[in-house]
């Protein structure tokens, strides 16, 4: 039940700002190279590893349509142009959403790690 509720909350947050329109906004691994490691980049996908230590925040960035697997979850505040939302993300949580722009801050006490698979446009 908790995962279903979390998925609904994330869905509502993400689709309020679903389409990244600003072409000046950089992809995550370019905007925040200290938090995003490029694992693979080909004609079909970009695969990133995100690592956010407690208190750490990435820079404003964009993603194409993506699937995110949280190896290690935690407490994070996600900021879009429309709102901020603080979420408790469980270990092993998987989510998908369409293209968007945002910023993430780890407001918890543990390091958050995730594998992100982005579809190429």
Mean pLDDT, nearest integer?
88
Poorly predicted segments: 14-20
**Count the helices. How many?**
2
- Biggest β-sheet: strands ordered side by side in the sheet: 1-2-9-4-7
Share of helix among residues?
Answer: 10-25%
- SS content category: mainly beta
Query: H/E element string?
Result: HHEEEEEEEEE
Strand content bin: over 45%
What shape does the CA trace take? globular
Distance between the termini: 34 Å
**Rg over CA atoms:** 13 Å
Biggest β-sheet, characterized? 5 strands, antiparallel
* Overall strand count: 9
Structural overview:
With 121 residues, this protein is mainly beta. The protein contains two helices and nine strands. It has a five-stranded antiparallel β-sheet with strand order 1-2-9-4-7. The chain starts with a helix and ends with a strand.
What is this entry, summarized?
With 121 residues, this protein is mostly beta strands. The protein has two helices and nine strands. The model is unreliable at 14-20 (pLDDT under 50).
Question: Strands, helices and their partners?
Answer:
Elements: H1 2-15, H2 28-31, E1 36-41, E2 45-52, E3 61-63, E4 66-72, E5 74-79, E6 84-89, E7 94-97, E8 100-106, E9 112-119
Antiparallel strand pairs: 1-2, 2-9, 3-8, 4-7, 4-9, 5-6, 5-8
Any descriptors?
single chain, mainly beta, five-stranded antiparallel sheet, four-stranded antiparallel sheet, 9 strands, 15% helix, globular
């Amino acid at each position: 039940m908790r995962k279903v509720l979390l998925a609904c909350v994330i869905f509502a947050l993400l689709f309020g700002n679903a389409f990244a329109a600003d072409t000046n906004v950089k992809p995550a691994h370019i905007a925040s190279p200290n938090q995003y490691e490029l694992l693979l980049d080909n004609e079909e996908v970009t695969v990133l590893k995100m690592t956010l230590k407690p208190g750490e925040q990435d820079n404003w960035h964009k993603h194409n349509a993506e699937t995110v697997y949280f190896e290690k979850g935690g407490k994070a505040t996600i900021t879009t142009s429309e709102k901020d939302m603080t979420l408790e993300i469980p270990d092993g949580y998987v989510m998908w959403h369409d293209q968007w722009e945002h910023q993430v801050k780890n407001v918890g006490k543990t390091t958050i790690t995730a594998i992100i698979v982005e579809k190429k446009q």
